[in-house]
């Protein structure tokens, strides 16, 4: 909805159109706690693309009559992933969350959650603008420029364009009260779940709930652990399983996606295929 026009005279998707016109590409992704906008463009068009991006972030129209089209896009994306085993697995684990923990909510939107369960479109439309007002502010964002330009030139571009953004008095939710040790009901730790796969594969997954690994990105202890478990040399777990024809694939670690890694907890998985 951010890109569906920025003022009565602007066209839709002007940012995307500008980046594409100059041989670049852009994308947006939504995670549990963050929304990511990114683009790649030749250096000579970097600053103009920053200008377009900050403009649409500051002045989105988000008209009520475009919500149906937006809901249709979200529902289409949901249908594409609804039958993927990874997403089904995520929703299964989410259903085991302790009551009141936010990671137990529906991790996607679809027509049922955004239309059938919405009694008044005016309420949804107001929620859209409230979300933009509270979150799309300078003090709620991180900006990461990368390019062959000198670092002081990149910095001056960021200051020049993003300093136009307003600040928000709304602080990010405090999630420290959600202790990872109490994040899931006993069934998560005590039961084995047998799931009929959609894809033609047989996978055995072990999942541990760890504290958030975000604060440890300098040392990445989870990556060291995953490297040791995934080792395929003599004497390794993989060599043992493969020699007995019990496995043809093994990986371990924390997927750096919004569902498996956020500020409340991390999912460390060992997958044997």
Largest sheet: spatial strand order: 3-5-4
How many beta-strand elements? Answer: 5
Unreliable stretches (pLDDT < 50, length at least 5) are none
CATH fold description of the domain at 177-272: Cytochrome Bc1 Complex, Chain A, domain 1
On the 0 to 100 scale, the average pLDDT is 91
Mass-distribution shape: globular
For the record, what CATH class of the domain at 177-272 applies? Alpha Beta
How many whole angstroms does the radius of gyration measure? Answer: 22 Å
CATH architectural designation of the domain at 177-272: 2-Layer Sandwich
Strand content: 5-15%
- What's the total helix number? 10
Structural class call reads alpha+beta
How do the helices and strands follow one another from N- to C-terminus?
HEEHHHHHHHEHHEE
By oligomeric state, this entry counts as single chain
First-residue to last-residue Cα separation: 40 Å
- Sheet of most strands: 3 strands, antiparallel
Share in helix: 25-40%
CATH superfamily of the domain at 177-272: Metalloenzyme, LuxS/M16 peptidase-like
What does this structure look like?
The two termini are 40 Å apart. The protein is of the alpha+beta class and 273 residues long. It has helices at residues 14-21, 46-58, 67-81, 85-94, 111-116, 121-135, 151-162, 186-190, 221-230, 237-243; strands at residues 25-30, 35-40, 204-210, 250-253, 266-272. It is globular. It has a domain at 177-272: Cytochrome Bc1 Complex, Chain A, domain 1. The relative contact order is 0.12. Helix content is 37%, strand content 11%. It contains ten helices and five strands; from the N terminus they run αββαααααααβααββ. Strands 3-5-4 form a three-stranded antiparallel beta sheet. The protein has a two-stranded antiparallel sheet with strand order 1-2.
